[in-house]
Structure formats: C-alpha cells, structure tokens
Amino acid sequence: METLLGSSTFPAETGSLPEHGRAPDTVLEELRELCRDDHDYAGGTVFNSICSAPLDIARRVFAQHLDANMGDNRVFPSLRRAEADLSAMFGELLGHPGAVGVTTSGGTEANLLVVLAAVRRYHDRHGGSGPARIVLPESAHFSFDKIVGMLPVEPVYAPLDDRLRVRPEELTRLVTADTALVVATAGTSEAGAVDDVPAVAEHTAALGVPLHVDAATGGFLIPFARELGYDLPPFAFDVPGVTSVALDPHKYGGVPIPSGHLLLRDRADAELLRTASHYRGTFDHHGLLGTRPGAAVLAAWAVLRTLGRSGYRELVKEVFTRRDLLLGMLRDAGFTTAMEPQLTVVTVRHPEPARLVDALERRGFIASVARRYGLLRLVVHWHQTAEQLRGLVDAMAAADGPWEGGRA
Ligand SMILES: *Cc1c(COP(=O)(O)O)cnc(C)c1O
Q1: Is 292 within 8 Å of 69 (Cβ atoms)?
Q2: Per the record, where are the segments of Polar residues compositional bias (predicted)?
C-alpha cells in the first residue's frame, strides 16, 4: 500500500471526459468505485482528523440550498442575515456580542484576512510598502507558512514550553510598538496546545499592538470545556487586548466544510478588508473568495440553533470523557503520552512514530505523526465510540510488536 507521509502526490492515472454522457446510475456506480478506499467517520478508523461528519440537519440544509452563493448576496439576501446572525452568536460565545464577523472558507482564509488587515494598517500608519513584522509562536499553524509567502511580512517566531505552548515572556521580548500583529493559538491542530493568551495580551495591549487568536481548533471546545470545569485559560474577547479571533465551525462545530469565521473586535478593522463590488446593489466583499457555497453558511446557522449551548456542552463533555478513556487505555497498554493533553489531541512518544503509523495504516487505521515534534498524534472526536478506541489501542499494541516486514 502506498503511504503519503510527507509527500506531494498527484495520481498517475486519470479519467477522461466521455464523448457521450452516461446514465446517472452508471455514473453513481463508477463513483462508488472512485470512493472505494475512502473512510467513513462512523467506521472507527479515523484518528487523524480534526473534522468529523456534520450533523444530519446540516446535510438536509446543505442539500436544500445547493445553489445559494455567498458571492451574490443580492440574489440570496438570506445569506447576509445568516452571516450576521452567526457573527452575533459567535461573538456572544467569545465574550463580545458586538463583534463584527466575516464568514470564510475556513481557518486559513480567516488567518490570511487578519494578516492582510494588519499589513494595510501598518502601511497606513508607517507609510511605504515594506515588510510588516508579525510575531508568531513556533507552533503556528501551517496556514501561516502559506500566508507569509503571499504577503509583505517579516515573520518572527517565539519558542515553546514543554507542553508546546508559546513562552509568553520570550514572545513579548520580540514585540515592540511597531510590530504589525501578534498571533497566539487557542488549540494547535498538532497537539491541542492552548497558549496563555492573557499573559500575551497584557503586553500587546500595553503597546497597542493587535493580537489575533487562532482558535480554529479550540473555538468550539474551550468555551464549553471551561463551563464544564476544565482548567483552561480564557482566550477570546473577554481578554482585553485580543483584537480578532478565527474559529472553524467545520472542525468541532458539527458544520459541513467549508465553514470558517473571522471575528473582529473593532468595526474599523472590517473596513480595512472591504472590496467594493463592481455591481450596483451587490454588497461589498470582506473575504477573499467570491463565489462560494452559501449552503455551508445556512447549514452552520441551522446547526447552531439545533444544538444550542447545552447541545455543544454535551458534545464537548462526551469528547473529553473519551479522551480520558483513551489516555487510560494507552497507559494500560504500555504507551507513554508525551504530555497531559489540554484539548482532544493525544500525543504519544515512540522511537519510530512513522513506522507505527504505517503499520496502523496496513491494519486500516489512520493516525498521524506531528512531524515538527516527532510525536505520534491521535485526534479524539465524537465520531469514535469507546469500542473503537479499544480497537485502535489493540491495533497499536499488535503493530508495536515485531514490525510487519521486520523491525530495523
Ligand atoms: C485547521 C486549522 C487552521 C486552518 O483551517 P482550515 O479550515 O483548514 O483552512 C488554522 N489554524 C489552526 C489552529 C487549525 O487547527
């Protein structure tokens, strides 16, 4: 079996456009074949994904509104209302009901918009078009690798502590009054590490430097986990000095892809992102993408209203309970976790994590290696049952014996 670790793979064999169309049933049959190797979240084999299956209500809404286009909010006025409602709901969740919000395709686009706004603000204030300095944790999501390659910025990286959180005192040493933006992460996707946002914000607020919190992974977990009594720091607008937050409803929000949201404390920051429409009566855009599925926005709206706060609290309680169950199973099977997890990502120390992951893949399970840290990484999500976690740990123990194919 082919493994994709660390590679960029384009399939060698491709289909072609048939001269004459085929019957839908024939195409659906071909499609089944095309999707033969795809995993079903419900099957208990997916342990690398921060995304999961959306709620049933989301599937219905998405299918009903397949033509809704966020790029043309004149044809679909519902979309602007839904976007405003979502911003209000997320703003409330994040401690600032008056936050201005922009729906995005995900965390990557939300982070890109924040950096773009920071660059524009920096050039407005300091003149010129030179690189704007942004300070990020070494753990910053790889969307920032893309972003710093696209925009005129000079990234500076702050080191981490032994639980892979940024060291606030080291980060603040890198921040001066002319820093264009500081980034902190509330839940890294590699290890679920939650930065000490209050400690960072104290310094940035004193200097008047904007602070963006990338809560793509933690945004739907931390508020409810805090309500449930888990010891996690505040990370959003209830912390003075936090100027923007990105969150991804398509991760722990139960919402279909593509769904991200950028929230801004200050309306003036939204102005920095405005692009005037060329058409009279069509509203201006604040995001990067033009045509994009309004169905995802309506589905997000429907999911939030279906679950409510108590629904999310139940889901979060469930997923944290499963995480603790997995930790116990791993310990009993003799595996060593790399650190006490803050959220739902469990990292395991192993002499050869890539070989263990390959051996698991041969047994049908998808786990991953956090390459920057050399750790085996397991993501707990609500698509996994207790028996399926047992299945994973049994497979790990079996695969960890003599390697199939011989141990090096
Ligand atoms: C997933 C993630 C992103 C990127 O979001 P996409 O929705 O994949 O574009 C950014 N930051 C963090 C911390 C993430 O977990």
Answers
A1: yes
A2: 1-11
Confirm whether pTM is higher than 0.90.
Answer: yes
Query: Which residue, of 264, 288, 306, is where some domain finishes?
Result: 306
What's the gap in Å between 214 CA and the centre of ligand 1?
8
Residue 258 sits in which domain range? 57-306
Residues 263-317 pLDDT 10s: 999 999 999 999 988 888 878 889 999 999 999 999 999 999 999 999 999 999 9
d(CA 83, CA 298): 8
pLDDT band at 73 (very low <50, low <70, confident <90, very high): confident
Q: In the listed set 291, 306, 321, which residue is the last one of a domain according to the structure? A: 306
Number of domains forming the structure of the chain: 2
If asked whether residues 209 and 336 sit together in one domain, one would say no
Best mutation site among 48, 51, 108 for ligand 1 pocket (most ligand atoms within 8 Å of CB): 108
The answer to whether residues 75 and 183 belong to one domain is yes
Lining ligand 1 with CB less than 6 A are 50, 106-108, 111, 141, 143, 185, 188-189, 214, 216-217, 248, 260
CA of 36 from ligand 1 middle (Å) equals: 27
Residue type, 128: G
Separation of alpha carbons 97 and 34, rounded Å:
45
Q: Compute, in angstroms, the gap from residue 4 CA to the centroid of ligand 1.
A: 20
**Which of 105, 115, 141, 147 to probe ligand 1 with, by most ligand atoms within 8 A of CB?**
141
**Cβ atoms of 140 and 183 closer than 8 Å:** yes
**Closest ligand 1 atom, CA of 185?**
13
The preferred substitution site among 143, 190, 221, 259 for testing ligand 1, maximizing ligand atoms within 8 Å of CB, is 143
Q: How many CB atoms lie within 10 A of CB 388?
A: 17
Tokens of residue 356, six digits = 């263990």
Domain shared by 386 and 399, yes or no: yes
* Residues 260 and 246: beta-carbon distance below 8 Å: yes
Dist. CA 350 → ligand 1 center (Å): 26
Q: Are residues 46 and 80 in the same domain?
A: no
Helix segments in 2-101, DSSP class H? 24-34, 56-64, 77-93
